[in-house]
Amino acid sequence: MDKNQRSGTANRKISKTIIYIVCIFLAVLSILPFWIMFVNATRSTPEIQNGLSLLPSTHMMSNLRVLLDKSFDPLQGFLNSFIISSSATLCTVYFSSLAAYGLVTYSWKLRSSFFTFIMCVMMIPSQASAIGFYQFMYKLHWTNSFLPLILPAIAAPAVVFFMRQYLLATLSMEIVEASRVDGSGEFSTFNRIILPLMMPAVATQAIFAFVANWNNLFMPLILLTQKEKYTMPIMVSLLRGDIYKTEFGSIYMGLALTALPLFVVYFLLSRYIIVGVALGGVKE
């Protein structure tokens, strides 16, 4: 091996080492806030007020008892959040996939205009329509109901856009034509053939949709006023206590319990995020 080859090998090793160091630093930087949250869930309020610590304390059970002694039930909040998040996620991924399938496989005059309209809807923040939406739900007597938090998930422009890009890159129209020749109906073709092909993208968007609905605070706080209907984010937002004493340990315990299901979802399905994003971003 000559001098240039040795120099090139050494430079590659140095570059690889730098990349590893940067990746480790970014990983630690990403994990640190969550670690501090879980550590503070084990500390008392005076300990938290005294400063930052990276080592767990011994007050986890007392913080949990304070949390359970509140006027609402965290277990009921978990159940409410799970019902809303799982139902809204199913509506989001299925109907968005169906809409994307229609935009890709059918040729009709206003297809481009319709897709442009969907993209324009993405620009409208939910806060801008919150007052009108609440008035509409009030007239339907749907306040203190989970339906206003589930059914609007059918219309998810960002998910439709992602699914459309995924189908443009991966779907072969020969498969659709062959199923039609075999006498398969459109819904049967979609449910039995197209939807299984879209599973990486569906799983990816399901994770994002579940996390977004689980963390949603704005609309549930407006629509839900009965304590037995509260979701976990609402309960955590109400953990401030009275004006004389705030139990910061119980607040961090509530935050940790709220974030725990999201960690489980990510750890179980994180590989689908990588596969789905990679395949969705590739175009022929």
TrEMBL record:
InterPro entries: MetI-like (IPR000515), MetI-like_sf (IPR035906)
Record's subcellular location: Cell membrane
Bilayer-crossing regions: 18-38, 78-102, 114-134, 146-163, 193-214, 249-269
Major site of localization recorded for this protein: membrane
Domain of life: Bacteria
Keywords for the protein's UniProt record, in alphabetical order: Cell membrane, Membrane, Sugar transport, Transmembrane, Transmembrane helix, Transport
Domain ABC transmembrane type-1: 78-269
Coiled coil: none
SUPFAM superfamilies attached to this UniProt entry: MetI-like
Protein's membrane topology: Multi-pass membrane protein
Pfam families: BPD_transp_1
Family: Belongs to the binding-protein-dependent transport system permease family.
Name assigned to this protein: Multiple sugar transport system permease protein
